[in-house]
Structure formats: C-alpha cells, structure tokens
Amino acid sequence: MAHFAEVVDGFVVRVVVVSNDVTTIDGVEDEQRGIDFLATGWPTDGAWVQTSYNANSRYRYAGIGFTYDTDRDAFIHPQPYPSWTLNGNTTEWEPPEPRPDDGTDYVWDEATLSWVEV
Questions:
Q1: In this structure, are 61 and 109 located in the same domain?
Q2: 72 with 83, same domain?
Q3: 29 φ, ψ to 5°?
C-alpha cells in the first residue's frame, strides 16, 4: 500500500492509503499516479505528497500536525518545546542542552531549560 499526506499551507491535515493497483505500473511505484488518483476523488486546497511508512523517503512517515518542508523535501515533527531548534541537516528538533548519557531516565523541563531525572 502507498501512503499519501494531504498538505495544506505546509501542514499535514490527513494521511490516506492508496492501493498498489493504483500507484504501480509495470511493477514500479509511481508517486504521480497516486497524486492523480487522489486529485480526482479527494480534491484538496493543498497538495498530496507520498510518505513512506518505513521512513524510506522524506525522513519519516507523515502524521497529522507535521509540517512538510518543500526545500528539504521532508516531513517534520511538531516542535516539542519552544526552546528546541530544528537541525536543518537531520530535520530533528534539538534541545538547548544535550540529554545526559549516563543510563538514567530524564525528561525535558521547559521552565528550567534543563533535563530532570525521572
């Protein structure tokens, strides 16, 4: 099955599944066939963008509320905390302080901008 995200104003608003019978021709998956199929039955004010359930493309599987960055051709998780910044190379959100790597469980505390032991 092929998965497609509906992207409106840069935000994923839904993710749908399209049969391989629609997206595959001569044994090769073709994203545009899925987009064309969805455009006829599921019109949108945005765009349909294929997403990979196995994260084989566009960095990760899209989810509702994610953004789609056309320049990076990447789906990006919502920002987890206001202090975290987006690493443009990995499309991952990074805290101002790295998580301690001492075998202890920590959670981020936005009020103190630090990791707190659980």
A1: no
A2: no
A3: -75, 135
Q: Tell me which residue range forms the domain holding 46.
A: 1-78
Q: Are residues 68 and 85 in the same domain?
A: no
Per-residue pLDDT of the chain (118 residues; tens, 9 = 90+): 999 999 999 999 999 999 988 999 888 889 999 999 999 988 888 999 999 988 788 999 999 999 999 999 999 999 999 999 999 899 999 999 999 999 999 999 999 999 999 9
- Locate the DSSP E strands across the chain: 2-8, 11-18, 24-25, 28-29, 47-51, 67-69, 74-76, 85-87, 92-94, 106-109, 114-117
For the chain, how many structural domains are there in total? 2
Question: Do 54 and 20 belong together in one domain?
Answer: yes
33: three-class secondary structure by DSSP: helix
- The pTM is what? 0.85
